[in-house]
UniProtKB/TrEMBL annotation:
GO terms for cellular component: Fanconi anaemia nuclear complex. GO terms for biological process: interstrand cross-link repair. Pfam families: FA_FANCE. This is FANCE protein. The gene is Fance. Residues 12-203 form the Fanconi Anaemia group E protein C-terminal domain. InterPro entries: FANCE, Fanconi_anaemia_gr_E_prot_C.
């Protein structure tokens, strides 16, 4: 109905119950796309907490279970959700992928695609800060490379700094500290080269 988009948003406990009742975590992926499309015009917009609950219910189980590239329906739903709630999605989804055991190849590829194509600039910075909070591993290097790729494509801010100075300092410090452990890693060498290229005026 036309009045649905303007209906009051449920509070978090109600939302959790609604998600369980609708079985959103296991609903067919075409229905997932339609549900995310319905979310976008909601007014007022969902709170950060409510959006994080939905991100967990809609996507977390599906993404962590990936053993092959995500379907076009799943990517369409993620892209739709990211267009308005990328920050809550990162808080839930990225954290789980980073802390997951094993290589998680498909999860890492998906995360790189979100960084490169879907997330807003402030959410890309959030992804970088989340990556730098966990021990650096070979599977995370492509994510950092994707973040730097966004910095190259994004227009610089008026001060000429794409990343906040404290975040850039942390990135450089992490790379310096981890260099001995990645002495034979081609991906690490490419990452260092990218940092020196993008931030040559800030890195001494």
């Amino acid at each position: 109905p036309a009045a649905v988009p303007n209906a009051p948003c449920p509070v978090p406990p109600q939302l959790e119950g609604l998600c369980s009742f609708l079985q959103l975590s296991t609903c067919p992926e075409p229905s997932l796309v339609r549900f995310c499309s319905w979310l976008l015009p909601l007014s007022p917009a969902l709170s950060h907490t409510s959006a994080a609950i939905l991100a967990q219910q809609l996507f977390l189980r599906r993404v962590l279970a990936l053993t092959q590239p995500p379907s076009r329906h799943l990517m369409a739903a993620l892209t739709s959700f990211c267009s308005k709630y990328s920050h809550p999605l990162c808080r839930v989804l990225v954290a789980a992928v980073l802390q997951g055991p094993g290589e998680g190849a498909e999860q890492t590829k998906l995360l790189c695609e979100l960084v490169e194509e879907c997330l807003e600039p402030h959410s890309v910075q959030l992804v970088l800060s989340q990556v730098l909070e966990v021990p650096l591993s070979e599977k995370l290097l492509p994510v950092l490379q994707a973040v730097l790729g966004r910095q190259v494509r994004s227009p610089p801010c008026p001060t000429g700094e794409v990343l906040p100075p404290e975040l850039l300092d942390l990135l450089v410090l992490t790379l310096c500290q981890q260099a001995p452990a990645f002495a034979t890693s081609l991906n690490f060498a490419r990452l260092v080269t990218a940092v020196l290229t993008v931030y040559q005026s800030q890195v001494s």
